Write a sequence for this structure.
């Protein structure tokens, strides 16, 4: 049960971080490609980057915990 809660917490943290990073990256890239007229390219980058980054971060964060974190073995009961 603890592993599942940790995976959910990591997935939520990954969603927050992923959304912010991808939104900033796409805003910078879109502005570099199409210019900065009234900030429309940056707004498009944020509009696309936030949901995609949140979904990708949620999946990656949860997968990392579930895949790599192994709980310590329990001692044998005698």
């Amino acid at each position: 049960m603890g592993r599942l809660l940790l995976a959910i917490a990591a997935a939520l943290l990954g969603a927050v971080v992923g959304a912010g990073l991808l939104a900033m990256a796409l805003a910078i890239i879109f502005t570099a490609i199409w210019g900065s007229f009234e900030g429309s390219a940056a707004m498009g980058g944020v509009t696309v980057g936030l949901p995609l980054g949140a979904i990708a971060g949620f999946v990656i964060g949860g997968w990392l915990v579930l895949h790599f974190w192994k709980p310590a073995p329990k001692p044998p009961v005698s």
User: Anything to note?
Assistant: The first helix runs from residue 2 to 34. The chain is about 80% helix and 0% strand.
